[in-house]
């Protein structure tokens, strides 16, 4: 009789929440949540990687400008400054920018007059400093170049892109905040779904209690069913988000923009994104278990 009672109780518990079917809108809601969460997380991780790559690329780089109106004096001064920079111990590379390159860069704004020679285009020299203490080295070079000529200036590359790096960092933190909000919303959806399932099966739960089922056994049914729904919804949302990320990545590469190309995800970021559906299932399972056990405790 004891074995028959246990089999009857098990059959009743499985009939309570039959597995293998999707009940209600919760899987689709979780799919939407996962889709938005993965997109937000990928945006935050990509922006963080772009800021890091930008900082590493610009660290120790600066541009020397010779703002002399007379073309001949500008060329002589540019040659003299380049030779002087090559003798500085903490200057690793000196690359004078050809005048034709400068003319090509400003031609979209000034037209063909940019290459006429009538416009006093400054001469530029890109330099690369040795690692460490970039600000101090730039200040030292600024004083040395000012002694050569007051028409020679130096500007570190990071100074121009610092506002952009700040904006990208702020957007990355915003994306992280959105991921946190979506996680909380997913947990709230699971709690509401677990409460609704508990209330709708309260009569059956009372029968299971009379048959000897414990609260943990009953809660395990709910968490198994909600975990399966979360697995289905998380996999669907993750797959769709992955397709969108791949398509956007291909579009960014097609633009040829160095900034957009820099927004790429390293392998560690892909591992974190792949862990999101697993975390979603774990969150749904734990939230369902906690909700059902708390609701069952109130019935006592």
What string, H for helix and E for strand, traces the elements in order?
A: HHEHEHEHEHHHHH
Anisotropy-based shape: rod-shaped
- State the separation between the terminal residues, measured CA to CA: 28 Å
Helix content bin: over 70%
Strand order in the sheet with the most strands = 2-3-1-4
Radius of gyration over C-alpha positions, nearest whole angstrom: 32 Å
Secondary structure tally: strands: 4
Please report the number of helical segments: 10
Q: What's the pLDDT, averaged over the residues?
A: 78
Largest sheet: 4 strands, antiparallel
Fraction of residues in β-strands: 5-15%
Explain how this protein is built.
By secondary structure, this protein is an alpha+beta fold. The chain has ten helices and four strands; from the N terminus they run ααβαβαβαβααααα. The protein has a four-stranded antiparallel β-sheet with strand order 2-3-1-4. Helix 2 packs antiparallel against helix 6, helix 2 packs antiparallel against helix 10 and helix 6 runs parallel beside helix 10. The chain is rod-shaped and about 100 Å long. The two termini are 28 Å apart. About 3% of the residues have low confidence.
